[in-house]
Amino acid sequence: MNPQRLLTSLLFLLLFAACSTDQSRMVAYEPVDAYSWDAAERLEFVLGPVVDAGDYDLTLHVRTTTAAAFPFKTLYIEVRQQWNASNITVVDTVPCGFQQEERRASGISIHQYAFPFARHRCQPSDSVRLTLRHLMRQEEITGIDNVGVSLSPVGE
User: Fold this and answer.
1) What is the pTM of this model?
2) Is 79 within a domain?
3) Which of 47, 67, 109, 148 pairs as cysteine with 29 (C-beta 3.0–4.6 A)?
4) Could you give the angle at the alpha carbon of 76 between the alpha carbons of 80 and 61, nearest 5°?
């Protein structure tokens, strides 16, 4: 085998071995219609099962787009949590306040925001089903590109 190829292969193997294989943080996104996210549209996510016991943070992620203006300062989202370990449903209203600085851009720009909203003590194999919908007075809102959730160990 060519020594240069051998060295290159060895470097790739070392790089691959150095990559983190930490699977403790779980993230999922769903697209919404940036021109018409209807209040009746529900987004569903399943996160888990977790591997290690401990406290986990739930975070709501919202991406806005300049393709269609979001006409408010705050977006309110209802989040229903259903953990597989219990028959209890927890409902939160998460206020998502967006920075209202003037944005000058050509083309389409996406802006991402994160809103931590809950902490839960998990046991191994726990998972959660999250159902989201917006709670705005307008039935259809614009300017939201996609919405996501994450479940990660406290401190990550």
Assistant:
1) 0.79
2) yes
3) 148
4) 70
